[in-house]
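Researcher: I'd like a structural prediction for the single chain below. Treat it as a standalone chain; there are no partners to consider.
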Amino acid sequence: MKKLTIFVFLIMILEINAIIISKIPESINQGDFFIIELVNRSEITNYEIETDIARTDIKIFENNDKIYSLIPVNYYVEPGKYIVNIKYKEDNLDKNSEFFINIIGKESVKDSLKVKEETAKKNSDENKKEMRSAVTLVRKNTIPEKLWDDKFLMPVEGRISTGFALERYVNGKSNGKHSGIDISAKKGTPIKSVNNGKIVYSAFLKVTGNTVIIDHGMNLFSSYSHLDTVNIKVGDIMKKGDIIGTVGDTGFSTAPHLHFTFTIGDTFINPFLLIDKIIIN
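Model: Treating it as a single chain, here is the predicted structure.
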């Protein structure tokens, strides 16, 4: 029985090595992401990836004759071992390969915010539902081509006042994990597009104020919230470093700052995994 188990395990490894080119991490933190590069051969088609770690649609793209998928780890996923299942057709036969990945939990850091009741009302459950509905719909679809180039920029010069995935409490009530980073800066400070992309959302939301979302292609999005002024419109093509607008304190905010996020699909990831980094040449 033991020999049979080892044999099956070796078959699984051979199948994975046959279709995956990139190195897969054995362990990864909540809120991180990894990239899978898959074999691009005419006899292998219809790739699909299934896993419980992402909590968003996992999409597969071709770039420069290579096949990639960006896999986020949702920061609410419990620590532990998870399966990633890759389905595909080879010579029109259905096949699948699996591998395991260990999700590492991060120590919870709490951040408390006390605000006036009038300000707190902007962060009501109803307003948060409105915000989620709007931005989730936008991130359902993406430009299939990779639009970004080289390293991602910091969107604005300033001080990091709130980090990623902190447990935030507002007037003693849990507000969930912080979805991005807050960068404190003077009102009116220019905000840059962190890389090439297309404006897919620009509107005022009661929670995040003036909000802009850029699609960088291949299911990767950046968002910019609480802006004072907005210099762009939906459909505009942005080059890295182009000015989107200026720092403000619109929406649920206590002082001028930029709330900045990256998402893969609708799952937030740690912005510092991308800022000043190159992913997929």
